[in-house]
Design a protein that fits this description.
- By secondary structure, this protein is of the alpha+beta class.
- It is built from three helices and 22 strands.
- The strands form five sheets. It has a six-stranded antiparallel barrel. Strands 16-20-19-18-17 form a five-stranded antiparallel β-sheet, with no helix packed on it. A four-stranded antiparallel β-sheet has the order 3-10-8-5, with no helix packed on it.
- Belongs to the membrane fusion protein (MFP) (TC 8.A.1) family.
- InterPro entries: MdtA-like_BSH (IPR058625), RND_pump_MFP (IPR006143).
- One of its GO terms (cellular component) is efflux pump complex.
Length: 364
Amino acid sequence: MNTALRIITLGMCTLNLSACMEQQDLNQSKTLRPVSVIEIDSNSSIQRHEYSGEFRSTDVTRLSFRVPGTITDIHVQSGEEVVEGQLLAELDPHDYQVLVNEIEARLIEAKSSHQLAKVEQKRLQKANANNAIAAVNLDRAKSAVARSAAGVQVIEQNLQKTLDALAYTKLYAPFDATVADVYSESFEQTLPGVPVMFLQANDSLEFVAQIPEAHRQHFEHGQSAKLTWFGQSQSQSAHVSEMTSSPDLLKQTYELSFSLPEQPESVLPGKMARVAVEIENSSLAGLVCLPHSAVSMNGDQAKVYKIDVNKVRSVMVEVPLIDSHKICVSGDVEQGDRLLAVGVDFVVEGQTIGQQQRYVWGAQ
């Protein structure tokens, strides 16, 4: 009987001890919970801004004929690669060729009249030397030679103009490019300045983005930036090359162009991307900007939690600037500090924390 009682008592103690150990392990697991930690990596006065934009070709042109006429042939199609000097389209040259023939005939007539005037001048010069005619007749002959010579020059210039017009009935590629679009078709009438096709060079790209008016003053020529787009594993370096000085009338944004030191592969004009630029904000000098979740607010008092090894320590801070995206604080917080990122209202001074998931908090 006593032996059975001892066995029962020993079993109950063992169960109680096991339950106590499990409860202790449970409490410890609750205390050592994993947390998210941010590390202050850079001066918060340097802010990172991103803007959407698109790649554009630096060599683009909308080709048009310089003379009116009827399109007889278009030798290329959209998407076709062309080389400099390649014939792209033609107008009906008949009317211009007829005009060339007419002016060439007039030029022959004018040269003949000029030659006759010179012969008449020589004859009158001999007669004048023998006092056979009045001097005024010789003066008239000289004037006739000058007028006929001027007439020849005028017709020669007219002939050159008509020859140029005849040459303008053919449209050639001004540089190696891709035919992005063809606006006209054969047998259509066209006028000078009306685009017939659009050419762009796919191997010479730049990136263009629209910048808000408030950010325009922070940009300068040569400023570095980083480009990212879907499917790209690494960012692409870029530099500010052009900046408009007047805003868009509708969007009130400024257009910035970024040059690319290296041309990206498999990227065509029109592809969308994002450009990231670091801008210095003097109003944030000496401040550390943090996400809202990293700052515990209690009325006018604010504090953050530093992490020393695996324990948290509260630090009182001042909040001179706050907006919808961040809280900028001043105090005993500096570059390299590790701060609790979330859950600051649910920890206590000196609490031990578990596994840490670290994020670098820099220019945002």
